[in-house]
Amino acid sequence: MEIDKIQTAARIINEGGLVAFPTETVYGLGANALNPIAVAKIFALKERPSFDPLIVHIASFDDLKILTNQPTDLVLKLAEKFWPGPLTIVLPKSSIVPDIVTSGLPTVGIRMPDNEIALNLIRTSKCPIAAPSANKFGNLSPVSASHVKKQLPHVDYILDGGRTKIGIESTIVSLEGNICTLLRPGKITIDEINNSLPDLFVFRTHNSTALISPGLLKSHYSPNKPLYLLQNNQTPLPDHSGLILHSKNDNIQHGEKVIYTSQNNNLLEIAANLFSTLHAMEDDTQVKQIFIEPVIEEGLGIAIMDRIKKAVYKYNPSL
Ligand code: TXA
Ligand code: MG
Questions:
Q1: Which of 40, 125, 177, 317 has the most Cβ atoms closer than 10 angstroms to its Cβ?
Q2: Average pLDDT over the chain, rounded to whole?
Q3: How many CA atoms lie within 13 A of 209 on its CB side?
Q4: 55, β-bridge pairs
Q5: Which atom of ligand 1 lies closest to the CA of 52?
Q6: pLDDT of residue 210 exceeding 70
C-alpha cells in the first residue's frame, strides 16, 4: 500500500470523514473515535441502530490506557497475548470515549487489529479509530473492497488491501476481575484463552434476557435472498438453487450452482471464504435461493456456525 493513500485516508479521518479499511477479520468503516460527529456519520451511513456500540481500534498499548481507566494486570496479559489479533476486549471506558461510541454503555470494546494497513492508518491518523464492519446493518460482512463498494458506495474513501485473511469478525469478550465472558465467538476460542491464561474463569454467554452485546442478536449477516441450512436428505433442491459446500461432493444435481468454501472441511478456509461465497451467491442473478451446509460446532466451527445461524434466521426463525 502506497504511503500517499494512507496519508489521504488519515487526512479524511482527521477532518471527520469516514474511511473503509481492511483488518485481518473483515473490512471496517472507520472514524476518529474521539470525534462524536464523525462517529455519528458511521451510524447514518450503515443505517445502524444507535443502541449498537462500536469497537475502537488502536495501534499501541498506550491507547489502551487512554481509553480505559487503569487496566488490570490480567487485562494487560490478555491483550499482550492476543494483540495484534482478532480479539476485542470490553472494558470500563474512560471519560475520553464519547457516549455515542458505546451507545451509552459504561464499557468500551477495544482491539488492536493484525493488519499493517489498519495499524498504519491508526498511527498516521494519531487517534483511535471506531469501526464497525463496513456493511449495511444486518447485511453480509465485507471481506474485500468491492463488497464495501456494493453496500456503501458513498463512503468517503476505501483503502483496498485485498481479501481479508480470517474472514469472520473478532472474538469479543468482556473482562471483569478474573471473569471473562464470551460475547461473540471468533477465531480465538474460549479454550485458547483459558489455556493461555489459567488465572481467568472463562464463560460462554447463554441466551440471557439482557442484551449484553448486540453481537448476540439472533439475526444478522444476511444475504438479500433466502438462505437455508442444507438438511441431510433435502435433494433435489428447487430450481435456481445456489449450494454452498465445505467439502468435495460428487452428488451435485444438474442445474445447481455450487461454490465450495473448502475442498476438505478445513475450518480456516471455510471462515476465510464464508462471506465471499455468500456475496457471490447474492450477486448471481440466476440464483433465487441459497442452501448452505452446516459445520461441526467445535473450535473455529463454533464461530462459523454462529454466523451461519444468524444469516439463516431471517428466513427460518424456527431454527
Ligand atoms: O472483527 C471485528 O470485530 C470487526 C473489525 C472491523 O474490527 N468489527 C466488527 O464490528 O465486527 P461490528 O460493529 O460489526 O460488531 C461489533 C460488536 C457489536 O455487535 C457490538 O454490539 C459489540 O461488538 N460491542 C461493541 N462494544 C461493546 C460493549 N461495550 N459491550 C458489549 N458489546 C459491545
Ligand atoms: Mg458487523
A1: 125
A2: 91
A3: 0
A4: 109
A5: 21
A6: no
Neighbours of ion ligand 2 (CB under 5 A): 133
Confidence of residue 217 (pLDDT cuts 50, 70, 90): low
CA of 56 to the centre of ligand 1 (A): 9
CB-CB contact of 122 with 67 (8 Å)? no
222 lines ligand 1 (CB under 6 A): no
Mean per-residue pLDDT for 52-59? 97
CB of residue 284 inside a 6 A radius of ligand 1: no
Residue found under cell 446493518: 137
Q: What's the residue count for the chain?
A: 319
Identify the residue whose C-alpha is closest to ligand 1 atom 33. Answer: 213
Residue 27 Cα: closest atom of ligand 1: 6
Query: What is the rounded distance in angstroms from the CA atom of residue 1 to the CA atom of residue 117?
Result: 7
Q: List, as own/partner pairs, every contact residues 212-216 make where C-beta atoms lie below 8 angstroms and the sequence separation is at least 24, other chains included.
A: 212/174, 212/181, 212/183, 213/90, 213/172, 213/174, 213/183, 213/184, 214/49, 214/51, 214/52, 214/53, 215/169, 215/172, 215/183, 215/184, 216/183, 216/184
- Which ligand approaches the C-alpha of residue 52 most closely? 1
Of 31, 225, 11, the C-alpha closest to 131 is 31
Q: Strand, helix or coil at 19?
A: strand
User: CA 41 to CA 43: how far, in whole Å?
Assistant: 5
Complete DSSP assignment for 61-83:
HHHHHHHBSS--HHHHHHHHHH-
State if residue 133 touches ligand 1 by the CB under 6 angstroms criterion: yes
Smallest-distance ligand from the CA of 26: 1
> Which residues, other chains included, contact 279 with Cβ-Cβ below 8 Å and sequence gap of 6+?
140, 142, 143, 147, 150, 223
- 229-281 pLDDT per residue, tens: 998 755 678 889 999 999 987 777 766 799 999 999 999 999 999 999 999 99
Query: How far apart (Å, rounded) are the C-alpha atoms in residues 265 and 261?
Result: 8
